[in-house]
Amino acid sequence: MSKLAASRRSPIALIVLLFLGLTFTGTAYAALQPSTSPDATAASATASDDAEEGKKLFLANCASCHGTNAEGKKGINTAGPSLVGVGSAAVDFQVGTGRMPMANPAVQAPEKPKVFTDKEIEQLGIFIDSLGPGPSVPDAQYIDLVNADIANGGKIFRTNCAMCHNSSAQGGALTRGKYAPSLMGVESKHIYEAMLTGPQSMPVFNDHTITPQEKEDVIAFVKNIEEGGNDFGGHTLGSMGPAGDALFIWTIGIGLLIAVAIWLGRKAA
């Protein structure tokens, strides 16, 4: 009996039991783990292909200013900021509005016809996203304006945007040759992306500062102006606010007063 008990306690028996336990555990894990669906595999492969195509587009059109790894460059005519972490929303705004690629260095990139297709812009965004997390292109539910509150959007716009873009969203001059562009005719998603990413001199209004629903409200307010919802009778004078009113009073009103004064003077003579 003592020899049998000793054999049961031998190190070899313990190793065999450990091996059998590990084998059983590995087999059970392999049998019970969730399998990757064909759709998920295909989506992953497509995203990888899009990122590779986006990298090719970036190297051919953007790397001269932003660096081959999008780390940014410093120079007189080839300076560009780092794009790591800016997200696909910034790419969609800058490239989708034609501001990038920038033809000539200037204090501000003007809007112009875009040079890439929507698919190419998407691929560029996927590549930039692969370099670091950043704001994404907005969901459709926040740019369809179905649940938007125009009055609340006007309140937010006047508080945060009107000092640069004018109370009627017509744009305005800034310092050192910069300007806040008119928001008339701008796509809803580009207005959302501008608030989210803060291009050029514009501050960033992230989702903690202005929520996605409030951004939708602001877009609805701008679109209401675009459709004439800010006209309350009479001539709009270009919807330039007090500047248009002052110009009208100075050129027409003062002119009429001078004409009346001359007429009265001649009549008295």
TrEMBL record:
Top-level EC class as recorded in UniProt = translocase
Q: Which InterPro entries match?
A: bc1_cytC-su (IPR009152), Cyt_c-like_dom (IPR009056), Cyt_c-like_dom_sf (IPR036909), Cytochrome_c_Oxidase_Subunit (IPR050597)
Q: Gene3D superfamilies attached here? A: Cytochrome c-like domain
UniProt KW Electron transport keyword:
yes
* Annotated transmembrane regions: 247-265
What membrane topology term does the record carry?
Multi-pass membrane protein
**Does the keyword Electron transport belong to this entry?**
yes
Chief location of this protein within or outside the cell: membrane
Checking SUPFAM superfamilies in the record gives: Cytochrome c
Residues annotated as signal peptide: 1-30
Q: Which Pfam families match?
A: Cytochrome_CBB3
Q: Please state the Enzyme Commission number of this protein.
A: 7.1.1.8
Annotated keywords: Cell membrane, Electron transport, Heme, Iron, Membrane, Metal-binding, Repeat, Respiratory chain, Signal, Translocase, Transmembrane, Transmembrane helix, Transport
* Catalyzed reactions per annotation: a quinol + 2 Fe(III)-[cytochrome c](out) = a quinone + 2 Fe(II)-[cytochrome c](out) + 2 H(+)(out)
Its localization reads:
Cell membrane
Q: Where is the Cytochrome c domain?
A: 49-132, 148-226
Q: How does it assemble?
A: The cytochrome bc1 complex is composed of a cytochrome b (QcrB), the Rieske iron-sulfur protein (QcrA) and a diheme cytochrome c (QcrC) subunit.
- Its recorded name reads Cytochrome bc1 complex cytochrome c subunit
What organism does the record attribute this protein to?
Ornithinimicrobium faecis
